[in-house]
Amino acid sequence: NSTSTPSKEINDDEKYKLLDGLLVSGFDEASCISRSQSHFYHKPSPHKPSQYLISKLRKYEELHRRCGPNTRAYNKDMKIIANSKQNGTHCAATTCKYIIWVPVNGLGNQIISIASSFLYALLTDRVMLVQFRKDKEGLFCEPFLNSTWLLPKDSPFWNTENVQRYQSTIEMEMNNTLNEDLPLAMFADLSFSYTFEERFFHCDHSQFLLGKIPLLFLKSSTYFVPSFFLTPIFEKELRKMFPDITSIFHHLGRYLFRPANEAWERITNFYQQYLTKANERVGLQIRVYDPNSTPHQDVMNHILNCTLENNLLPRVLGTKNTSLSTSSRKNKTNTKVVIVASLYPQYGNNLNTMYQNKSTVTGEVIEVYQPSGEGKQKFGDNKHNMKAWVEMYLLSLCDVLVTTSQSTFGYVAKGLGNSRPWILYNPVNNQTKEICEREFIVEPCHKYPPLHYCNGTTIEDISSSFHNIRHCKDFPFGVKLV
Ligand code: GDP
Q1: Which of the four pLDDT bands, split at 50, 70 and 90, describes residue 275?
Q2: How far apart are CA 382 and CA 387, in angstroms?
Q3: Which domain holds residue 445?
Q4: Strand partners, 471
Q5: How many Å apart are CA 337 and CA 273, to the nearest integer?
Q6: Cα 405 vs. chain centroid, distance in angstroms?
Q7: Cα–Cα distance between 189 and 100 in angstroms, integer?
Q8: pTM score, whole prediction
Q9: Which of 171, 265, 320, 409 is the one with CA 20 to 30 A from 442?
Q10: Element (H, E) at 337
Q11: Can you give 26-79 as a three-state secondary structure string?
């Protein structure tokens, strides 16, 4: 508003609220309360989004408004593509191009793959829609102003059974047996399988081919962003968008994943009830993939060794010194609150018992809370996903974080919170000899990076062949941007 000069405080508040321009104003606040409140909970980020990234996001939002669901362009394009499936047409041009993100695996895997797909959409001028079923209701706000990213319920594109596969198409292209007539829709499955082959998705020649396909289904469970840095046609643009390439997920994650009101209420209720009073908040993410091969007691010992040796939590005395703890409380001794996120309730219970029954050598008061203990991973379950999302977000609000090696659940927490966690290694199957180790970079690990150069020869050592790519500490086969 040019007629009034807002005070500096208002500008600053607006700046924090909009995460230094990452978010756009204009949303109805009540529809997504976390948008206007999350900056009260997260520490201000030291990573500022570049002006170029901000301008790309604003342009993207504009594109999404023009081409997203319920627009004239979308309705027309979707008809053309759907009809081409039925009558085999292969040529009609559409006004816009699209990605439909297809889910696979757990929520952490899905969040990092949505962020990667969105970056791909930014790089290729596509509109991204997501196949969210009932299991994701109430988790995330709409990220794009005056539009929706949800694939409409009545879309014919929930079913991808007969969509031509990118993998076979690119093989034909490389063997020079590809027919000129490309389909209008194609399915690229980049998720891990035991016959994993990247099929040169990171190569310019694949991207030229995919650029001709109006609708691309994208399925992946990994953070495939580092691959884009191997793609010459993308690299320059990426470096303009992200002069600091170690905060890509941090920016994209905070931009895309705002807790919807129900999730936000759970997060803030928990925070106000247990975390506000803490001098320090410690998050422990304990992911046990198979309790048969990794016994809980071994994991518990590992957690204690890691947290005590690195002074993340204090050791305990033989017994509870009630006079000490009473006076400590009176003297306002430090209170550390520990949030335990795990499928198994025994971790929170064990820690809680330990600190309730014994005094700490530092005199600190330790309170332990575990929001849930689901027992096992469930698929397609809304309540279960809600708990997972709330816990990822709560972990992202902690001052100190310990995450389990290789877990994408932990990747999301550290990325949103911009923390360099301690990585807890598996006590049984551990290639490094460390119990836990400090992470050096906030970016998630891309667990299945390309195996070949674009001419087909094998990449012997990806970290020495490409700039800014290193093997991950927690998953040495994978890579991350540094
Ligand atoms: P990853 O398998 O560790 O990489 O993480 P994902 O998030 O992709 O998949 C694990 C899924 O199991 C989560 O999405 C949850 O559904 C469930 N899960 C695992 N650990 C926890 C936890 O600590 N808390 C909750 N609530 N759910 C969990």
Answers
A1: very high
A2: 9
A3: 261-481
A4: 479
A5: 11
A6: 15
A7: 12
A8: 0.94
A9: 265
A10: strand 335-342
A11: CCCHHHCHHHHHHHHCCCCCCCCCCHHHHHHHHHHHHHHHHHCCCCHHHHHHHH
**Domain endpoint, select from 256, 279, 307:** 256
Q: Are 246 and 481 contacting, i.e. CB atoms less than 8 angstroms apart?
A: yes
Same domain, 325 and 249: no
Ligand 1 within 6 A of 81 CB?
Answer: no
The C-alpha atoms of residue 479 and residue 304 are separated, in whole angstroms, by: 29
95 found inside a domain:
yes
Is 466 a pocket residue for ligand 1 (Cβ < 6 Å)?
A: no
430 vs 249, which has greater pLDDT?
249
Tokens 């087909």, residue located: 456
> Ligand 1 pocket, 377 CB below 6 A?
yes
What is residue 394's predicted lDDT score, i.e. its pLDDT? 98
The structure tokens 């607006």 sit at: 14
Residue 80 in domain: yes
Regarding an ipTM greater than 0.90, the answer is yes
Whether residue 53 contacts residue 238, with contact meaning beta carbons closer than 8 Å, is answered with: no
408 Cβ inside 6 Å of ligand 1 = yes
Same domain, 292 and 239: no
Please count the other Cβ atoms lying within 10 Å of the Cβ belonging to residue 293: 11
Q: Which two tokens stand for residue 3?
A: 């007629």
Q: How far is residue 57's CA from residue 242's CA, in Å, rounded to a whole number?
A: 12
For ligand 1, atom 5: residue with the closest CA? 409
Check residue 394 and report its DSSP letter: H
- Which among 239, 256, 273 is the end of a domain? 256
pLDDT the model gives residue 466 = 86
Q: φ and ψ at 145, to 5 degrees?
A: -60, 135
Which of 290, 409, 414, 446 best tests ligand 1's pocket when mutated (most atoms within 8 Å of CB)?
Answer: 409
Please count the other Cβ atoms lying within 10 Å of the Cβ belonging to residue 17.
Answer: 16
State percent of the chain over pLDDT 70: 92
Counted domains in the chain = 2
